[in-house]
Amino acid sequence: MNPSVVLKASREKSLLRRHPWVFEGAIEKVIGKPHSGATVDILDAKGAWLAKGAFSPESQIRVRVWSFQQDEPIDDAFFKRKVQSALALREMWLEHTMHSALFNADNTSHDTKGSTAITNAYRLVAGESDGLPGITIDKYDNVLVMQVVSAGGEKHKKKLINALTSLFPDHVIHERSDVEVRKKEGLDLVVQTHVGDLPDAVIIYEHGVKIEVDLIAGHKTGFYLDQRKNRQIAGSFCAGKRVLNCFSYTGTFALYALAGGAEEVINADVSQSALDTSAKNLALNFNTEQQAKVKHVKEDVFELLRRYKEKGERFDVIVMDPPKFVENKRHLERAARGYKDINRIACELLSDNGVLLTFSCSGLVSQDLFNKIVADAALDANTQLSYIQKLEQDSDHVIASSFPEGAYLKGLVCVKRQA
């Protein structure tokens, strides 16, 4: 019999909607002595069974739900079913997208036109949205990179690896659980290859563009797969244009811009190693003459934007894809000021009828708040913007209907109207 967590009166409503989190403040008492990652039954204030989940004694998210079925054991078969279900959904997505027109890759060295594969890299498991809370798995060709940030995921990691080995017998399985959020669960940071020999890097492709992914030191699990669709959209605006790619990281927006016919692209990032990888990505896709259209600038983007403003620089397309500015609600106001600052200067640097593609990957910044931040930035810049498209994470980063928090990436395509 599992230990039990009993909720306070009227605090079961979210669970009845199948939301997978129980916060510390919703708990009336704990029956038994569950250890970190242990499976507990969740009961309402009257003792009625609601769900079973993983207990985390040090996290504000005290329980993450595994199952809403009382008789479902959390065993090897459970994890295999969950991964199989996630894989089937991605295969459906790939089947759907393969019939869409591929990105015009005439200027790249890798052309997938006519191929049934739009990419060889995608998010296989998206945590709570795939019924595996705190577990992320990305597939890069024949390498699976997992990131476990929950006590329950850590407790059952071996079962997860068994499931992956069974379903992907020829794949390397590597873990990049080296994110600070693990400390909130009382977990140490872990980097470990569980199956096979990990290469330093792997080449993926998407929409005909080749990209080198740094599996050792790359951000997140190695790369930002969530922006795949948005990179394609950005490229469609760049024919004959001067493009500024801010917070460029490994330069993938620039690859799409150049493939889309950009005349000049500036990649701006504070990391020299990221810019070095950007140069490698350019060489994978373009000849020397085309590569010369891209300039790499190692500088703090906030300072660079101000310098460009002072010099009277103008750009036809600006991509603003900053890292997460906010980790908790205490920092939300400061983050909003940061987003507003960079978007205000971007508005001032845009040519008339120029296009700004601006993003926030901070889950605590809602779409409505982000819209307001960009609107206030335009107002302070004495600029009129028209929002012509809302952007979000690509479809392999699924969002469960019961878990709206899964929709973390938001963006806007804005056009600067003539005065």
Structure explained in plain terms:
The protein has 419 residues and is of the alpha/beta class. It folds into 3 domains: 4-67, PUA domain (Archaeosine Trna-guanine Transglycosylase, Chain: A, domain 4), CATH 2.30.130; 76-202, Transcription Regulator spoIIAA (2-Layer Sandwich); 224-416, Rossmann fold, CATH 3.40.50. Helices cover 28% and strands 29% of the residues. The strands form 4 sheets. The chain has a 7-stranded mixed sheet with strand order 16-15-14-17-18-20-19, with helices on both faces. Helix 2 packs across helix 4 and helix 9 (301-311) packs parallel to helix 10 (332-349). Mean pLDDT is 93; it is low at 101-116. Belongs to the methyltransferase superfamily. RlmI family. Residues 3-88 form the PUA domain.
The largest sheet has its strands arranged as 16-15-14-17-18-20-19
Q: How many structural domains in the coordinates?
A: 3
Helix-and-strand structural type: alpha/beta
**CATH superfamily of the largest domain, called what?**
Vaccinia Virus protein VP39
Strand tally is 20
- How much β-strand is present in the residues? 25-35%
Name the average pLDDT: 93
Per the CATH scheme, the topology name of the largest domain is Rossmann fold
Question: Which residue ranges are poorly predicted, with pLDDT under 50 across at least 5 consecutive positions?
Answer: 101-116
GO molecular function, one term: methyltransferase activity
GO biological process, one term: methylation
Enzyme class: transferase
InterPro entries: PUA, PUA-like_sf, PUA_sf, RlmI-like_PUA, SAM-dep_methyl-trfase, SAM-dependent_MTases_sf
